[in-house]
Amino acid sequence: MTVATAERAAGGVAPRRRRTRDWSDAVLSGYLLLFFAYMFLPLMFMVAAAFNANPTPSVTDWQGFTLKWFEELPQDARFVQGLLHSLAIAGGVIVISIPLGLAGALILTRLQSRASTLLYTVLVSPILTPGIVLGATTMIFWRDAFGMEAGLFTAAIAQAAFIASYCMLMFMARLQRQDRALEEAALDLGASSVFVFRRITLPFLMPTVLTAALISFLQSIENYNTTFFAIGSSWTLVTEIGARMRFGLSPMINVIGVIFVVITVAAATAWVLAKRRSGNG
């Protein structure tokens, strides 16, 4: 092949590669556009409807800008009480799930046995169990075994049954990156197991503890299926919203959605800024 032929061949390949790359970029851009539209357009409609004076949440039937739905929300006693119930349950779930998840992770990462695979399957199984089953069985067990009526306590126990498994998986991922040599050296120097856990293992796990607590809180606040079947005659914010949805949409439901979106974005932003600041420090 002559030099001229080689140059012509190379010149033909380059435009083809460029066209292929342009086509791939166009497909990727279109996919990202559809993805973000699918994710955020409903949220934008929900936010806009919260400021519409129309008593039926709508964006197309605009009847004027208003803040009255935000003013009426604190006056709704059941919504306010449901929020307090949700916060109480979420606090209980965090207190239960973090120690259980940490204990399970420590056992599975430290246990050198053939039974570890079976134990892992058992401990992860609550994640795969339908929430209806977890809620109903928890309510029946505590009622028949201890005579306890369904309420906030049984709802927290039922939620923690599967949220603890999420915490366990997060702790396991963190523990698999730990250098065990530090623990072994401390034990060889005469430190007790409690001292090693308190001064070495727990500080290493602290970022995951905070993340697991946040995930537990969010999982608890938004949970409906398990809570509905375990809470009895009481209610949370989510179950109250579900109950009212059967009688039609309410603008205050959109207001609650807007508040949660703002809190979530603010918390995520604060978390990212804190991580960057700690990394720079």
Tally of helical runs = 11
The rounded Rg comes to 26 Å
| Secondary structure: helix percent | over 70%
Q: In terms of structural class, how would the helical and strand content be classed?
A: mainly alpha
Major beta sheet, specifics?
none
| Shape, principal axes of CA atoms | globular
What is the strand tally? 0
Low-confidence segments, ≥5 residues, pLDDT <50?
Answer: none
Distance N to C terminus: 60 Å
In percent, how much strand structure appears in the residues?
Answer: under 5%
Average pLDDT reading: 86
Oligomer: single chain
Give the H and E element order: HHHHHHHHHHH
Question: Mind explaining what this structure looks like?
Answer:
The protein has 281 residues and is mostly helical. The protein is 80% helix and 0% strand. The protein has 11 helices and no strands. The protein has helices spanning 3-50, 68-72, 77-110, 116-128, 131-146, 152-175, 180-188, 193-222, 225-230, 237-245, 251-280. Helix 1 (3-50) packs across helix 11 and helix 4 packs across helix 6. The protein is globular.
